[in-house]
Structures are given as structure tokens and as C-alpha cells.
Design a protein that fits this description.
This protein is an alpha/beta fold. Helix content is about 45%, strand content about 15%. The protein has two domains: about 5-15 and about 85-220, 3-Layer(aba) Sandwich (Rossmann fold), CATH 3.40.50; about 15-80, DNA polymerase, domain 1 (Orthogonal Bundle). It has nine helices and eight strands. It is elongated. One of its GO terms (molecular function) is phosphoglycolate phosphatase activity.
């Protein structure tokens, strides 16, 4: 049986909040608007860049006008498009993925982040080579927490299902709606206490993930 594991990106494999925060504040600075705090930016991550800019506008008293939103989103994408300067992979991520690959686990990515910065980040951090399939925020019309993108990635991997790994309320809801087991990385951007989030497994360091995956697939094939 194929062992397929699909990962979320922001808050799960990479800590991208510092770059998202910086890019959002560049947009605001160009408008002559005071910066938002890091905690605000971090709390706005999860539903993709268009939603992040919508929340930045609301928090900064810039309203909800769709044309203004389109203009500021375009400006944001210009700033959030270079090599990630402040982003880092979470501790142990690369080792864990290498160990999973060594145990013949097939891996994919399912993020709400737009395609351009997703590809840049995957390449920059050497994550690309592990991901057989990578769906981003614009791959389908639907985005997480709609389960469609997650089903799409497992289907493209040729797996009937598998384990989804993510960090946030959005990921937990996606997995639950998809009817799939979920490993929650507790050190990402979630705001809800762990016991209140749907999850099958929870872990706070990637060193623990290969054993969780091995145990999971032993259980489902037993
Ligand atoms: O960019 C976002 O808002 C969320 O991205 P993620 O789906 O990889 O967490
Ligand atoms: Mg995430």
C-alpha cells in the first residue's frame, strides 16, 4: 500500500510569518499607513494572500473596496516575491523529510499560498525535491478549508488517501471535512488550544514525525 503524506507549507514546514509581515508593512508604508504588529500579521495567515491583505486593510482602517484590495494585493505580491529573507524551515524539517523519503513515503504539498512564492520557497529551502505534487492557492478554484485541494493532491499522488500534516485551524478543518487523518504541528500559527482542534496526532518537533508516520501506516495496514 502506498504511504502518502501531504504537507501544509506556512506555519508547518516554514516559518514565513516574518517575511509576510515585512511585505505587508511595505505595502502600508507606501500608503503612508502605520505598520501592523508581528502578532497581527501572524494571526492573518492561513487563508492565502488575498485574505491576508483583506485582513490587513480592515485592521488598518483601509476599508473593503474591491479595487483597492486588488491594487494592494498586487503591491503585496511585488514585495512578497523575492528570495525569502526572514523565513526559515522549522527545526528538523529537512531531516524528517529525508527520513520519510528513505522509508519510501510519497510526499505532496497543499498550501493556500499563491503559486509564485510557493515555488520560490520550495526551491530556496530544498523542499522541492521531496514533493511529487504541489498544489497552491490558485491550483483549484477552491481553497482550504474546502477539502477539494487536499483530495486533488492525494489523487495526483495516485494515493486513495493518507496522512495530512498542518499547523492551523484551516488545516484541521480541511482534514476533518476530507475525512482524513491529521497530524497537527503545534508550533505553527494556530490560535486554538490543541485539544479543541481536530487531530489524529500532535507533535511539537519534526524529529517526532517519521515515527508518527510509521506508526500510522502500520495501524492502517494491520
Ligand atoms: O499563505 C497562507 O495564508 C497560508 O498558507 P498555508 O496554507 O501554507 O498555511
Ligand atoms: Mg499553515
Amino acid at each position: 500500500m502506498m504511504q502518502a503524506v501531504v504537507f501544509d507549507l506556512d506555519g508547518t514546514l516554514i516559518d514565513s510569518a516574518p517575511d509576510l509581515h515585512a511585505a505587508a508593512n511595505k505595502v502600508l508604508a507606501a500608503e503612508g499607513v502605520p505598520p501592523i504588529t508581528f502578532a497581527q500579521a501572524r494571526s492573518f495567515i492561513g487563508h492565502g494572500s488575498a485574505d491576508l491583505i483583506r485582513k490587513v486593510m480592515l485592521a488598518s482602517g483601509l476599508g473593503e473596496d474591491p479595487d483597492e484590495h486588488a491594487r494592494l494585493l498586487e503591491a503585496f505580491m511585488v514585495h512578497y516575491n523575492g528570495p525569502p529573507a526572514l523565513t526559515t524551515p522549522y527545526p528538523g524539517v529537512l531531516d524528517a523529510l529525508a527520513r520519510l523519503e528513505g522509508s519510501r513515503v510519497t510526499m505532496g504539498l497543499c498550501t493556500n499560498k499563491p503559486g509564485g512564492p510557493t515555488e520560490i520557497a520550495l526551491r530556496h529551502f530544498g523542499l522541492e525535491r521531496f514533493m511529487r505534487v504541489a498544489a497552491h492557492g490558485d491550483t483549484l478554484e477552491a481553497r482550504k478549508p474546502d477539502p477539494a485541494p487536499l483530495h486533488h493532491v492525494f489523487a495526483e499522488l495516485g494515493a486513495p488517501g493518507g496522512l495530512y500534516v498542518g499547523d492551523s485551524e484551516v488545516d484541521a478543518e480541511t482534514a476533518e471535512r476530507a475525512g482524513l487523518p491529521f497530524a497537527l504541528y503545534t508550533e505553527g500559527y494556530r490560535k486554538t488550544p490543541v485539544p479543541e482542534l481536530y487531530h489524529t496526532y500532535a507533535f511539537d518537533h519534526f524529529d517526532a514525525l517519521p515515527d508518527i508516520v510509521a506508526r500510522h501506516f502500520r495501524t492502517v495496514t494491520a
